[in-house]
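Collaborator request, handled under Task 6.
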Amino acid sequence: MVGEPKGLAWFSVGQERGGKMEFRDLKAQYGALKAQIDLGVDEVLASSHFIGGQKVSELEGKLAEYVGAKHCVSCANGTDALQLALMAWEIGSGDAVFVPDFTFFSSGEVVSAVGAMPVFVDIELDTFNMDPRKLEDAILSVERAGKFRPRVVIAVDLFGLPADYGRIRPICERHGLLLLEDGAQGFGGMVNGRTACSLGDISTTSFFPAKPLGCYGDGGAIFTDSDEWEALLRSYAVHGKGECRYDNVRVGMNSRLDEIQAAVLLPKLKAFPTELEMVNSAADRYSALLDGLPLKLPKVPNGYRSSWAQYTIVLPEDANRGDIRRYLGDRGIPTMVYYPKPMSSQLAFAGRCCLPEKCEVTEFACNKVLSLPLSPYIDLETQVRVVDNLKMLL
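C-alpha cells returned to the collaborator:
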C-alpha cells in the first residue's frame, strides 16, 4: 500500500528536495523519541550507575518477553553474542561450524576465534539466506571426510528475514547439531507466529545503531530457554566469573551492555512495534514502485515477516553496479552493497575455512546486489525520487 506511515510523530527524512538523503535515518527516529531517550539518559547520568544497573535488567526482561524466550543476556555487541554462545557450547579445535557464505564477517569470524573450522554454505537468491539443501550436502561432505566434527549451524536472518528454520532445524536434528540463530539483522522478524531471536537453541542479536533495534553505540543480546546455558553465558561475559566478579572459574571475556545504551533501547523497544509496521509499509511501497523494472525484488515467503534491516534488489546481469551507484550518489541518493565479497574469499579465511562446493549463488549476489535507502521514517516522496532516478538507468 502506497502511503505515509502513521503512529509516531512525523519527521522528514533529512532529504531536502534534491538534497542528500539518509540511508538509514537515525536522526528522524531520534526526533520522534527524543523526550523519552533524553529522560532515560539523564536518569542514568544522575544515578552515576553506568554498568549493569536497573535499566539493563529491565531491558533484558522486556527483550525476553518480546521474543518469547525464557532468558535474555545482554552483552557488548552482536559479535560477542555469537562468540559467547559458541563458548558456552565448548566449541573449539576439531569442530566444524556451518555458516552462510553471504553474510557479514562476524558470523564466520567467531568460529575461527574459538579455534573451530568455518564451513561455508551457499544461499537461496530469493531470500539471501542459507540454502537448506546445500547445508545438508555440506554436512554430509564433512562427515565423509572425517577430519572435523560437525557441531553447529549458524543460521543468519539476513536483511531482516528469518532463515528457513522449518527446513534447517530437522537437518540439525538428523545430524545431531546445535542451531545458533544469528538474528543481528532479524530482530522483529517472524516465522509462522514465532518471533526471530527465539528460533535457535541459542539466538543472538545486535544493537548496532543501524540495526532494526539499535542503540547509540555497540550492544548485543543472547536468548535461550536453557537455565544452564544462561548461567554459562553470564559467566563468560564477565571474565568467567563464579560467585562474584572476583571469583574467576573459567576464562571468559569482558562483554557487558552499559546503562546508557539500555536507557536508549528501552523507549526504542516500546516504539518498535509501530516502527515495524512503518518499515514494512515502506518496503511495500518500494515493491509497488519498482514493479515492472528488470530487477529481482526481495521476497517475503508466506508465513514470514521481515524487519527490513535492508531493502536489497538484484540488478540485471548487464547492469554496471558501479555506474549506477555513482549516478545515484551524484544526485544525493546513498546506496550500499551488502556484501561485495563471499565470506570464503576473505583473506582472513585463506587456508582457515572449508568450502565443500563452490557457492555460485553467493558469487552472483555479491556482484549484483544493491541496497536502497530505507527506514521506518522514509516518506513516499523520497522513495519516488529514488525509484525515478533508478529508472533512468534501467
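The cover message to the collaborator said: "DSSP finds eleven helices and twelve strands in the chain. The two ends are 24 Å apart (CA to CA). Please let us know whether this matches your experimental observations."
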